[in-house]
Amino acid sequence: MTPTAQELHPAPVLEPGRTILELRGLEKRYPGTHALKPVNLAFRSGEIHAIVGENGAGKSTLIKLLTGVMPRTSGEVFWEGQPAALATPHEAMALGINAVHQEVVLCRHLTVAANMFLGEENSRFGILQQRAMVREAQKIIDDLGFDLPAHVVLGDLTIGQQQLIAAARATVRGTKFLIFDEPTAYLTRKEADQLFTLIRRLKGEGVTIIYISHRMEEVFELADRVSVLRDGTLVGTRNIAETNDAELVKMMINRSIEQVYHKEHFTPGAPIVETRNLSGKGFENISMTVRAGEIVGLYGLIGAGRSEFVTSLYGRHKKSAGQILWEGKQVQINSEHDAIKLGMALAPESRRDQGLCLNLPVGLNLNLPIYKRISSNLLISNAKEKAEADRQIAGLRIKTPTRGALASSLSGGNQQKIVIGKWLAHGAKLFIFDEPTVGVDVGTKAEIYRLFGELLSKGAGIILISSYLPEVYELADTLHVFRRGKLVATHGFNTASHEDILTQALAEKQEKLGGQT
Amino acid sequence: MSIEAIPAEKPKRNYNVLFGLTLLALLVLLWIVLSLATPSFASGNNIANLLRQGSMIAIMAVGQTFVIITGGIDLSVGAVVGFATVVVALLINAGVPIALAILITLLVGVAIGLFHGFGIVKMGLPPFIITLATLTSLRGIGLLMTNGNSININSDSFTAFSRNSFIGIPNLFWMVILVGVPAYVFLHHSRWGRYLFSVGSNAEASRLSGVNVQRTIYMAYTLSGLCAAFVGVLLAARIGIGNPTQAEGWELQAIASSVIGGTSLFGAVGSVHGPLLGAFILATINNGANLLNVNSFWQRIITGALIIIIVYFDGLRRRGK
After folding, report:
1. How far, in Å, CA of B27 to CA of A348, rounded?
2. Within a 10 A sphere around the Cβ of A58, how many other Cβ atoms?
3. Nearest CA in chain A to B8
């Protein structure tokens, strides 16, 4: 559907542009960790420079240093040849350094226009020129080719659309150096394409783009150069034309790419759960079966009804019609409690909003579903509480100083391990994983996939939701494609091509896209 | 870094203990300074009086802390205390046996707490609003029931309780221990305590993990109502009357004690010993200021300043950690 990277970028332009930002021995130490070992790197104006690496490799630290959120421990930074302190976010912004974060950091309750001009409102004699701002914002948005209204409240847009607004906002502020931190994590393909168009256009205007992503195909589609971080060390920088997937992955994790999608096949056993014509808000007439020892993948765009379907199955939301059979018997699931009692476990889509109690200890998060079991009568057994938490921490190799450390202090991948780990001790039969690897590095991904194999070998069934096709494609024994709340196609393991599945998931949208070009 | 070498849960507990010790040190320091500054402070009479003053706020603060840990607030507790004095006074004067009168009064507190839970869980009202509404209405209901008069309690054995001591310690202070010990076990060693924290931290995540969020919220407000009604009984015994306008502003003292004791108004952070110490620090400051003849207006200012200072330093240390 989209032209390949080579077609769009015939041999990346590599006559060195002017160096805009140079790092010399940039270094960051926290008490106990050496987060970033001395980095020497020069960014050129008008280049798209991808930075890849596992969670905890030092990417976030690097961004925080560049945007002035944290002071560096040592080293020098030169902005257009002049030494820069980058001690405050304000200083970074004044130079023209901006960042678009993975999680949208804007005011959800204000309008799109108000957010675009937040901090730089257009006012006359202290009175806000609201209509003028909406007009101006709309012009910028239209200009960028985003099909979005400027007068609506930001919170009414999807997360992906909010992300586009955040990007648009960053472009109107005299930005010369723009950092994207995993911008496509929550975007649909169409939104991602719009974002890429924006990024290429900024590049054309001479803006330096730092692009951080776990998605290799995006790096190859967009970037001119790529730098790899591992354990706080800059392993190397490559011109994109002179490298490939395999080399980058190897640099990142010292492991080959085949080992990432680790798939074990089991002979499926008896059905664990079966839905018959299940309908509810956002999905209708969904019939599917999950058997012991199999992974059922649900693929589709964000908003296709996959999450709504599983949360309803899990009792979080109401069902309007249909039946659920659990191990062959018809059951009523009216609450999460009912679902958990039957033996379901849900690792929800958003770690931050649904998965974790961030300001509580790792141990408490891990034990939350099983406190009843580790209590004798009224009191919690301290020994069991410790043992259970430590067992999961060790088994999943969760990197945390102690089980008493707050969940918020862990990296994204380790947080995701907690979201999954809390259900392992509970002894569920059906595991529902909703986007389990969003914002998670390759190494942790591989660990999570290996865990799937373990669960299956114990006779569990898995529902795997992902917007990342290779993931469901390589892992699911049965792959259901969702579009607009309906189950539109079903495939076996590796039986359909990527293109067919994409077409089925996109269908109408693609026609629309085709009409525009 | 090997995982086996990880020390057990020490940091968090150490921090809690450390903060508790700092508060305790502050309390002791206040006592030493006041003993040196005024001869009457260290007298047995005054200490007993101080313990009585602090006890009631301390018990309210414990209930309040449960609510604040869930991320809520209970503004009604002062009004519940006043209302409970009326209920227990009317019951005793009507000839109901004392034990039964107390039990019924406590159940009234439970009912008020359940109502708060209902308002928050079923009607979707913010805790601030529903408890603010109860605050004003309960005072009104109490005034209607008493026609605005105080009711003298005609039972000496009831009122004697609050004046008496057991092995040299005022009975009222024993009540703090009676409430504090089970409260400590409940909050820190039972799963319901863990649920209070988890709901305060992230209600949706708790719900998806199988925690009954609604029941947890009901529980927090019910315990707060129960503690407040119990304080109402103690207050009625101490002053010998039932009067709905009693305990005006005590909700703020209870909240202040809780916050001084390290409870976060954002939820998910708090303990039982913290608010207890907080309550006695406040009581000591008021008592000491009286003895030193400090203008009572100043006492309020000092209390306010103290809240800012303690919470500021607590926040600094948490962030520094």
Report:
1. 46
2. 24
3. A402
Please compute the mean of the pLDDT values over residues A229-244 and round it to a whole number. 88
Q: Hey, is A322 helix, strand or coil?
A: strand
> DSSP characters for A387-431?
HHHHHHHHHTT---S-TTSBGGGS-HHHHHHHHHHTTTTTT-SEE
Of A319-323, A367-371, A406-410, B242-246, where does mean pLDDT reach its minimum? A406-410
Computed over every residue of chain A, the mean pLDDT equals 84
Reported confidence tier of residue A507, pLDDT bands at 50, 70, 90: low
Q: CB neighbours (10 Å) of residue A289?
A: 16
Q: With an 8 Å Cβ cutoff, are B210 and A348 in contact?
A: no
Q: What's at A70, amino acid-wise?
A: M
Residues of the domain holding A419:
353-426
For chain B, the structural domain boundaries read: 45-320
Taking Cα atoms as reference points, which of A173, A164, A174, A118 lies closest to residue A144? Answer: A164
A38 class by beta-carbon count within 10 Å (0-12 exposed, 13-18 middle, 19+ buried): middle
Alpha-carbon dihedral B301, B303, B304, B309, rounded to 10 degrees: 120
Residue B289 has pLDDT above 90, yes or no: no
**At A320, phi and psi to the nearest 5?**
-100, -25
Q: For residue B136, what pLDDT is reported?
A: 94
Checking if the pLDDT of B19 tops 80, the result is no
Contact list in A for residue B6 (CB cut-off 8 A) is 390, 393, 400-403
For the stretch A295-312, pLDDT in tens is 999 998 777 889 999 999
pLDDT (0 to 100) of residue B80: 97
Looking at beta carbons, which residues of chain A come within 8 Å of B201?
Answer: 357-360
Contact partners, residue A447, CB within 8 Å, separation at least 6: A396, A397, A417
Of B195, B208, B212, the CB nearest to A316: B208
The larger pLDDT score, comparing residue A443 to residue A79, is at A79
How many independent structural domains does chain A possess? Answer: 3
Angle between helix B171-189 and B156-163 (nearest 10): 70
What value of ipTM does the predicted structure carry?
0.82
Specify the CATH number for B45-320; select among 1.10.3470, 1.10.3860, 1.10.10, 1.25.40. Answer: 1.10.3470
Give the side-chain half-sphere CA count within 13 A for B175: 28
CB contact under 8 A, B198 and A368: yes
Regarding whether A416 and A478 lie in a shared domain, the answer is no
